[in-house]
Amino acid sequence: MEFQYELGRLWHADAQGVVDAELRFSIINDGATWSIDEIRVAFELRGRGIASEILAQLVERARNARITLKPVCSYARMQFLKRADYQALQYKD
């Protein structure tokens, strides 16, 4: 799935322009950290790994930009607990 990016969010829209997957993040820590606030996937698309895919894209962007990540939403927190490569980018309060 191809996601669009703008500062503060990654998203996908269907052919009619309806957003069906979205990750929202805030810029904190004087721009050094992105807080992963929310990941939403349309009900009919759930169970296909889309939340994992959109999170992976944000993690890759953060890694390339040398940005730390603060997983706030429950899904992101769960993934950060499971993945050592994500934990390496995790912001420590």
A few lines on this structure:
With 93 residues, the protein is of the alpha+beta class. 31% of the residues lie in helices and 33% in strands. The chain has a five-stranded mixed sheet.
Looking at this protein, list some descriptive labels.
single chain, 93 residues, alpha+beta, Aminopeptidase, five-stranded mixed sheet, 5 strands, globular
What does the model show?
With 93 residues, the chain is an alpha+beta fold. It has one domain: Aminopeptidase, CATH 3.40.630.30. Helices cover 31% and strands 33% of the residues. It contains 3 helices and 5 strands; from the N terminus they run ββββαβαα. It has a 5-stranded mixed sheet. Strand 3 and strand 4 form a beta hairpin. It is globular.
Tally of separate helices? 3
Helix share bin: 25-40%
Give the N-to-C terminal Cα separation. Answer: 33 Å
Which structural class best describes the helix and strand composition?
alpha+beta
CATH superfamily: Gcn5-related N-acetyltransferase (GNAT)
Secondary structure tally: strands: 5
Estimate the mean pLDDT confidence. Answer: 96
**CATH class descriptor:** Alpha Beta
Low-confidence stretches: none
CATH architecture descriptor name: 3-Layer(aba) Sandwich
* Strand adjacency order, main sheet: 1-2-3-4-5
Do you know the CATH topology? Aminopeptidase
The biggest sheet amounts to:
5 strands, mixed
Taken from the alpha-carbon principal axes, the silhouette is globular
Radius of gyration: 13 Å
Portion of residues in beta strands equals: 25-35%
The number of distinct structural domains comes to 1
Instruction: Write the H/E string, N to C.
Output: EEEEHEHH
Domain N-acetyltransferase: 1-93, 3-93
Protein name: Acetyltransferase
InterPro entries: Acyl_CoA_acyltransferase, GNAT_dom, GNAT_YJDJ
GO molecular function, one term: acyltransferase activity, transferring groups other than amino-acyl groups
